[in-house]
Amino acid sequence: MNPTDSLAYLLVGHPNAGKTTLFNYLTQSHHSVVNYPGSTVQYALGHMPHQGPLIIDTPGIQSMDAQGPDQALTLTMMQSPLSYTHSRPIRLVWVVDARHASHELALIDLLHQQIPGGILVLTHAQHTPSARMTASRLTERLALPVFWVDADTPDHYEPLKVALANGVGTPYVSISFTPPANEAIQSAFDWSTSLQWPPPSASPALSLDRWVLHPVIGTMMISGVLLMAFVMTFLITAPIVDGLDTGMSWLITTTQSMIPHPLLSAAIGEGVLGSLGAVLVFMPPLFVLSLCIAIMEDSGFLTRMAIMYDRTLTRFGMEGRSMLPILSGYGCAIPAIISCRQIPNRRERLATMAAIPMGTCMARLPVYALLLGMLTPSPLIRGGLLTAVYVGSLALVLVTGRLASRYVSGPTQPHPPTPFYMTLPPWQWPNMTRACRQATHQVTSFVIKAGGTIVAISLLLWGLATFPSPEQSIMIRIAHYLNPVMGIIGTDWRIGVGLLASFGARELFGPAVHAVSGGEIHLSLGSTIAILVFYMMALQCGATVAILKQESNSLTLAIGITVLYTLLAMVASAITYQMVGIIRLCF
Amino acid sequence: MANQEVAQTSHMVPVPHSCQRLCDCKGGTCVQIVGIEADDVTCRTLLSMGLTNGTHVAIHQTNRHGGPVIVGLRGTQIALRSSDAAVIQVSPLLN
Lengths: 587, 95
Known about the structure:
heterodimer; A: alpha/beta; Rossmann fold; 7-stranded mixed beta sheet; elongated; B: alpha+beta; SH3 type barrels; 7-stranded antiparallel beta sheet; 3 helices; 7 strands; 21% helix; 36% strand
């Protein structure tokens, strides 16, 4: 057995301190992202090359009080590491950004007082060349081996790599620490200030903040960038999605012609391949949107966006950090709900999670395209109406957030918003490799988490719609019971079949209705708008319900939201249908 | 730039008996923190952000209409909500 097999290191530090870059250098990017059993927070685990020590990357912490599930995981890992390290004793690696050392060292000092041992790694050393002079004063109080690294000169990692392989630092198996007293925090910052750490060489990008954080110009700039990201997502991927659609249709036809048995041919063609295609068409737009978000995150743009939107979102029961989840909810609710973890407070986190399903995710677009196509032949009016749908859904997201936050905090006690603060990371040129990797990870986790459900439910629905015979299927029988309900919005059981099919995947609406109507779908103006309204509000996505349950850790909440939104959608669509009827009577 | 401003404040002296709230400060000025008036959790949260007594703070941007307050301290830029900046008592620093 290799002696380094028993070594395990935990990288701990502030958010953006350079832990992940260090982790990637040490493990040569050969790592896996894992979910701790029973928790949904992810952390990265990897070995140094040649069966070297185990390295664990942790979510950044800002204090010894857990701010949200991510930071709570880091603090738990530090206190009882054994279940995360495959029963190896842990050694700590404190990671500090040399540019912000006099700020970040205070926390390390506080932690070090309760967890002795470990080593200190100062990243971004190239930006503060004169800082090494301070190092002797640093080690007077923090008796730790110090390593300087910077991404520009990989040679600087060698001493650290050697030390890690030789087992630097003191191992432990469990430790408990308590949050420090206010006096201790004061003393730690007094000490880190007294180091008189040299400021980093000024970056010209700093003056960018003057514009981006400006109340008027900044809001306009940020909105412009967001709009551009969305337009790009749709424009770039539209031809790819069309190509995938055509390719899948060809594949289905070809496969079906090769299988002689009619039932088997239909099962594989329409059932399996059809639902696989449904998953496939989401992947390109989701990738581009995730890529845009990753680039914005890496460059420091997202933090500024959160700061700028905080005031608006606070009014709706959420906070600045809710902006990213809401935004990604317009791609797919699954990664959006997962990204709510970064919101520290439970109330704002749950409110954001409840609001996300109201956003127009990409799965709704095929349905909207179909319905808007029935309303008007003019592409210009269709575009306008689609924009209206987007604006309407944004309003729904905000109102839902507000109501959900009221529900979470209880109607009797109005809570003030919880403290909001963010460290502004320096502007930097985004790392495209990292952004691509992050986007790929988002798409893969969507395929794994939602893909399985979509395929399974699509198959089930296909079965319901096919047996015992397509004309007398179980689904048609169920849909007949819906006849009175569907009558409220001026349609019949055929649309009911479409709505039932949508619970598997929304885009199955068109094909399902098509199949039972035997050709053209005819809907009145009122019914079309009513169905549109229904799709804007109803939570018809099995995967979203599953993720809501997983992330909120409450089945009641997930089912409650599903039932509530669907009921709300039914009522709203009925009202819409009646209103359109009245308006048509008047004119 | 943020860090230079903080560095420059080291030879400044606080003006006695002229406390004000951090959110009421003008952009471009430098102040010193003299205390936080808040509940225990908020107080510890703000202290953990480095907003400790005696810290010299460069005000980059304040917003009279409740927008974010951006400050620089110890080479780091921090954004605070106006309502949170309101509990931080500061005194201006003179050159």
